[in-house]
Design brief:
The protein is of the alpha+beta class and 179 residues long. It has a single domain, classed as Aminopeptidase. 24% of the residues lie in helices and 34% in strands. The chain has a 9-stranded mixed β-sheet, with helices on both faces. Helix 1 crosses helix 3. The radius of gyration is 15 Å and the shape is globular.
C-alpha cells in the first residue's frame, strides 16, 4: 500500500516494515550503521570513516526539492522492530530510468530485509519508470542475489569507484524492465 507524503515521496508498506522518506532525526542511526566499514565498503558513495557532518549533508540532499536521488529508510517500528534497518534509494538516471541502491545494517543481514525492500520499491515504482538498473561490486554475492531474487537480470561488467576503499573495483550491472 502506498500513502502519499507532502513532498511527493510515498511511504511504501510491506509486511515487516515501511519504506519511508528519510527524516533529519534518522541521522544518528544512519551514521551508526553507514559508518560501519562492512556497510561503507559495499557502496560506492559512503566514506569510511564518516567525516563530521556527512550524514546530515546526505539527509539534506535527499530531502531537497531539487534532489537527484530519492532515499527511503527501512523502518520496522510499526512491527515492533528497529527504526532504521537500512536504506533503499533511487538515483535519477533519466526521465524514466532509475538506478536502485540499498544497504542494510549488518545485524539484519541474511534476514531477507534487502530483498523485501528492493521488491517493494520496484513494485511500487514511485517514479513510474520503465527500467531500474543496479550495480554491485564483484564479490558481493549477497547483494547480487538480492537483485536476481527480485527479477533483475545480469547485463554486464563495468567498474565503479568505492569511496570507503579509495579504489576502482570491478562491478556487475543488472537491469529490470518495467512490468
Amino acid at each position: 500500500m502506498i500513502h502519499n507524503q507532502i513532498d511527493t515521496q510515498p511511504v511504501i508498506e510491506t509486511e515487516r516494515f515501511d519504506l519511508r522518506p528519510v527524516r533529519p532525526s534518522d541521522a544518528g542511526l544512519i551514521a551508526l550503521h553507514a559508518g560501519d566499514a562492512r556497510v561503507a565498503q559495499t557502496t560506492g558513495t559512503i566514506p569510511h570513516p564518516l567525516p563530521p557532518g556527512w550524514t546530515e549533508g546526505y539527509i539534506a540532499r535527499v530531502r531537497a526539492p531539487d534532489r537527484t536521488e530519492d532515499a527511503w529508510v527501512i523502518d520496522a517500528t510499526r512491527a515492533g522492530g528497529a527504526e532504521v534497518l537500512g536504506l533503499v534509494l533511487l538515483k535519477h538516471v533519466d526521465d524514466d530510468v532509475r538506478e536502485i541502491g540499498f544497504w542494510v545494517a549488518p545485524q539484519f543481514w541474511n534476514t531477507g530485509i534487502a530483498t523485501e525492500a528492493v521488491a517493494a520499491l520496484v513494485a511500487a515504482n514511485p517514479s513510474k519508470c520503465r527500467a531500474h538498473f543496479a550495480t554491485v561490486f564483484q564479490g558481493n554475492a549477497a547483494s547480487a542475489r538480492v537483485l536476481t531474487n527480485t527479477g533483475f537480470q545480469y547485463v554486464g561488467d563495468a567498474e565503479g569507484f568505492c569511496v570507503a576503499r579509495g579504489v576502482t573495483l570491478p562491478t556487475w550491472t543488472y537491469c529490470r524492465k518495467g512490468d
